[in-house]
Design goal:
This protein is α/β, with parallel strands linked by helices. Helix content is 32%, strand content 23%.
Length: 460
């Protein structure tokens, strides 16, 4: 029989965000070509036995910082090592950032695509970072949206990059007018400044004091502000790394008022609580916003279950270990961030399904489908469906792991999960119809990943 498919996945259980069923999956030309009754007579150039495995949409990591510039250097990963680690964990799409730098916005966006395209093994998209509302920046927003960069990030804190309230309004208005999605690192700068000044005066600057330097009130205040702006502009808004109850309450309030708010949280907020700041190697966990209390962690899980939390990113930033440690008595000198691209999917599965008893369909929603919808990638990504990209993770729910099994991007960095353990790992991963992980081993190709140019959103 002449093969009808490039690849046929037999014997698995297909899991989408709304249903699960025993189906075989036929792949051709990089897309899902058919969903077939088990045991069909279809033929393929290659078959994979998925007996006992879940066949799910590949994960979408909404928040990564690959090869990221800081303090006149860059993180210890590159586009090959980072995307290799991501796909070994079960992530097949990452959304990274275009960092602020000299030169025009459009030129920076194109340069970032060229940099990634040379080495990435999975598909990627970008959120350009906006740091000013000058005429050139505002004019370029329409240009880069037309080129497929449709979601943006603005900081409301950090002196070297923050936008004030007026600039946020100007930039949001330009983004909305061109069919883009404004997004924010949402923390009120003045509240943070006041909290840190209090710590300096009292001499409380140790690692255990770090969470109090960035209170949840700062997140909540800014979420209220940008949500009101979004409501006036009739645009959705994306909030990066929602860390706890104060921020989540602000998201819920804005939604009740009629704003479409896409709330992202991160793996570390779901897996840890603030006790890490009094434990061993607490410097690892200096992240902004901070990891918060046990009650905040539970509230985030409630937000995942009820749909308030749309997506989970890793906020991956692979600093050299030497850049993070050595400032245990003064957290101001520790760069905020940590690696995690390799751990996002296994840690999220274990915490969601094994610990919190969520259904695998709910896992698919928060690991892939809701992110695809919010960021303009659906139905190409986020669902096992005919016509979608053949980005598939064949998941072994019974396979146990420890932190040592979650392979990092570089031996020069560290892990937030080295003392973690769980059950559930990717056995095989297909990206763009290519088998890129086989029996847990990397089999991908450098430069095979594609830039995901997204269409502007329609406005009512």
């Amino acid at each position: 029989m002449k093969p009808g498919f490039d690849l046929l996945i037999r014997g698995g259980e297909v899991v989408n965000g709304d249903a699960r069923a025993a189906l075989d999956v036929g792949v051709a030309g990089g897309r899902i070509a058919a969903l077939l009754a088990p045991g069909s007579s279809a033929a393929a150039e290659r078959e994979i036995d998925a007996t006992g495995l879940l066949v799910m949409p590949g994960g979408i990591d909404t928040h990564t910082h690959v090869a990221w510039p800081y303090d006149d250097t860059v993180t210890v990963d590159d586009w090959h090592s980072a995307t290799r680690a991501a796909v070994l964990g079960g992530t097949t799409t990452i959304m990274d950032f275009v960092p602020p730098a000299e030169g025009g916005l459009a030129a920076r966006c194109r340069a970032r695509v060229e940099e990634a395209a040379a080495d990435a093994v999975i598909d990627f998209g970008f959120h350009p970072i906006l740091t000013g509302s000058d005429a050139r920046n505002v004019e370029d927003i329409g240009k880069v949206i037309a080129e497929g960069f449709t979601s943006f990030k603005m900081y409301t804190t950090y002196e070297d990059r923050r936008v004030d309230d007026g600039a946020a309004w100007t930039l949001m208005r330009a983004i909305a007018a061109n069919g883009g999605l404004p997004g924010f690192h949402a923390e009120n700068h003045e509240i943070l400044t006041s909290a840190l000044d209090d710590q300096v005066r009292s001499g409380h600057l140790g690692l255990a004091d770090y969470p109090h330097s960035r209170p949840g009130l700062a997140e909540a205040e800014t979420i209220h502000m940008v949500s009101m702006y979004a409501r006036r502009l009739n645009t959705p808004v994306y909030i990066f790394h929602v860390s706890g109850s104060d921020a989540l309450d602000a998201v819920r309030f804005a939604r009740r008022a009629g704003t479409v708010v896409h709330a992202e949280t991160c793996t570390h907020y779901l897996a840890h609580d603030e006790s890490v700041f009094t434990g061993e190697d607490a410097w690892r966990f200096v992240i902004s916003p901070p990891i918060r209390g046990a009650a905040d962690r539970l509230d985030l899980w409630s937000g995942i279950a009820d749909g308030t939390v749309v997506s989970v990113g890793s906020d991956h930033c692979a600093y050299d270990t030497s850049a993070k440690r050595g400032w245990e008595h003064d957290h101001r000198h520790i760069p905020a961030g940590a690696p995690g691209i390799e751990a996002r999917t296994p840690v999220l599965w274990n915490e969601a399904v094994n610990v919190r008893q969520l259904d695998p369909c709910q896992f698919v929603q928060v690991s892939a489908e809701r992110a695809a919808r919010a960021l303009g990638l659906f139905p190409r990504k986020g669902r096992v469906a005919v016509g979608a990209d053949a980005d598939l993770v064949l998941w072994d729910p019974a396979r146990a792991w420890t932190g040592a099994d979650l392979r990092p991007v570089s031996p020069a960095t560290f892990s937030l999960y080295e003392r973690s353990s769980g059950t559930g790992l990717a056995r095989h991963v297909v990206a763009g119809g290519r088998l890129v992980v086989e029996d847990g081993n990397f089999a991908g190709e450098r430069g095979a990943g594609r830039f995901l140019a997204r269409a502007p959103m329609a406005r009512p």
